[in-house]
Amino acid sequence: IVMPGTYNENILWENKNLVIKSYSGREHTIIDGQNLGLVVHISGPTIDSTSLFEGFTIRNGMATQSGLLSSSGGILTNGVSYINLNNLIVENCNSTVGTSAMFFHYGGTVKVENSIIRNNLNGGLQFHSTDGIMYNVVVENNFNNSAIHVYDAGIEIDNSEIKNNPHSGITYSGVGYEPNNFQDVLFSNNGTQNNADGG
Fold it and tell me: What burial class does residue 175 get, using C-beta atoms within 10 Å of its C-beta: 0-12 exposed, 13-18 middle, 19+ buried?
């Protein structure tokens, strides 16, 4: 349990099933990367559905390293079996490739719930060979890349809004096909670059 405050740090979470929660919620518990690197890196196949990261604002992440670590400034998962990300705000992050806020790389499933992804310089979320579940998520005002990018993965989106993203709403790439299911999802005022669904 993490008490309220602003924590200027970058977190590496490897191969442990943990429940990390804030005591007072995301508005009062901020992890600030100070534009010095990736804010939260979660990796390892032993991380499964018992793990939870909940109740934080993640901000000012910058992907300053090469390779995979350049893929996201906010939250990067790599090779996890399953992870629950709940009640988060991810904002004001940047990256050189991929999407700035959240990049999910070669894993099983990532579930994002009750969260806001906003004001990131190089896009919102990318599911890269990792299946995604999004419930009650707002993705807004993310620039220069897709609000959501899906690469060789399946995604379920329910009760969510994808709005005001100048580049595009959702894009797909890769050679694999996985089923995608949308229910009660609003796409509004998004750009239409790269054959994206602008809504």
Answer: exposed
Please, what is the end-to-end C-alpha distance for the chain in angstroms? 39
Handedness of CA 137, 130, 46, 78 (dihedral sign): negative
For the record, the structure tokens of 107 come out as 């894993």
**CA–CA dist 100, 62 (Å, integer):** 8
The two tokens of residue 137 are 């998520």
| pLDDT (0 to 100) of residue 43 | 96
Q: What are phi and psi of 107, to 5 degrees?
A: -135, -165
Of 197, 179, 177, the closest CA to residue 187 belongs to: 197
Query: Going edge to edge, which strands form the sheet with 146-151?
Result: 11-14, 40-43, 75-78, 102-105, 125-128, 146-151, 168-173
State the pLDDT confidence band at 142, using cuts at 50, 70 and 90: very high
d(CA 100, CA 122): 5
Residue-level pLDDT at 194: 61
What are 86's strand-pairing partners?
Answer: 54, 113
Identify whether the C-beta of residue 10 lies closer than 8 Å to the C-beta of residue 38: yes
Strand 125-128 versus strand 168-173 pairing type: unpaired
Beta bridge partners of residue 117, listed in sequence order: 90, 139
**C-alpha dihedral (135, 141, 146, 152), degrees to nearest 10:** -20
